[in-house]
Amino acid sequence: MKVYLNMVKIRCGWCEKNDLYRKYHDEEWGKPVYDDKTIFEFLVLESFQAGLSWYTILKKRENFQLAFDNFDYQKIAGYSEEKVEELMQNIGIIRNRLKILATVNNAKKFMEVQKEFGSFSAYIWNFVGGKPIDNQFKELKEVPATTEISDQLAKDFKKRGFKFLGSTVVYAHMQATGMVNDHVINCHTRQI
Q: Which residue did the predictor score with more confidence, 123 or 21?
């Protein structure tokens, strides 16, 4: 006699809206990222997400990739006013002039940090001692929007001239890039 167990994956509740969210949750969210290019991509996406839903950004992610030269921060740092105007006409992205200008600014600041620390990854991961903070939350309502570390990092970003990277955006970035593991304890990705 064979017994079949229920093979439903338990996930963090926020991602159960649809398959796009589930795929992002299962394959990317909370996995440590040390690559500068990917870190920059998430900084751009998180800064555009400010005031919007993450789902909106995920739906437009490929459009952002195309519009922002595959998140090549060296190219973005050199964007002209004409390129900014072109982006303002791109219906595939969030057409917010301040966020677009912030992206150009942040690309320049990103490279300044790279020069100072050898890589942006070395700089940002230093805020968590070089390894992920493994939180043990049982329920989504326990997960904070900001922490003391995200406050410190946002303050340091501001001091260095970065834009649209307040503490809430920074904490979302920390979650996305695995600087903190905020998967609830019964989430299947904790066992991966």
A: 123
- Annotation: CATH topology of 30-191: Endonuclease III; domain 1 (1.10.340)
- Of 21, 29, 54, 73, the catalytic one is 54
- pLDDT higher than threshold 50 for residue 5: no
Amino acid at 75: K
CB 33 within 8 A of CB 39: yes
pLDDT at 51: 86
Q: Which is catalytic among the residues 21, 29, 41, 46?
A: 46
**Neighbour-count burial for 156-177, b at 16+ CB within 10 Å, e otherwise:** bbeeeebbbbbbbbbbbbbbbb
User: Token pair for residue 181?
Assistant: 């593991």
pTM beyond 0.85: the answer is yes
Handedness of CA 86, 89, 93, 99 (dihedral sign): positive
For residues 124-134, give the mean pLDDT.
97
Give the distance between the most distant pair of CA atoms in the chain: 70
Angle subtended at Cα 22 by Cα 16 and Cα 23, rounded to the nearest 5 degrees:
170
Catalytic residue among 24, 28, 55, 112: 24
**Helix residue spans in the chain (DSSP H):** 19-27, 36-49, 54-67, 73-77, 81-88, 97-117, 120-125, 148-160, 167-176
Mean pLDDT score, 21-43: 95
- In the residue annotation, 24 being an active-site residue is answered as yes
